[in-house]
Amino acid sequence: xxxxxxxxxxxxxxxxxxxxxxxxxxxxxxxxxxxxxxxxxxxxxxxxxxxxxxxxxxxxxxxxxxxxxxxxxxxxxxxxxxxxxxxxxxxxxxxxxxxxxxxxxxxxxxxxxxxxxxxxxxxxxxxxxxxxxx
Length: 134
Fold this sequence. Notes:
about 65% helix; globular; about 0% strand; 8 helices; mainly alpha; single chain
């Protein structure tokens, strides 16, 4: 997937369509804006739009945090999230080998490969950044 510079949320897959539509309709269309969304605001969003879920909003917020704080591209952030890494704190305590196994397991389950060149050196870099932030 190509990242649309005019709409950074365009890369999100179809299962986030309701949340993406809601965010854009409400002028929340940048990773910076998304990262600042609070749990209280998420609860209010879900009450306003019944097709949106708290879980998906929180996942989008985690993706935004990974993108901004770790300087990852959206695909790398999405990969981390769906490999079972829910936060920068969780990433900071991982071993690069374990993280690589999580990512490769996800790839096998999805029968795909990542769009980024994932290797141990890159994973160590991500973990070190996460440690420096926590």
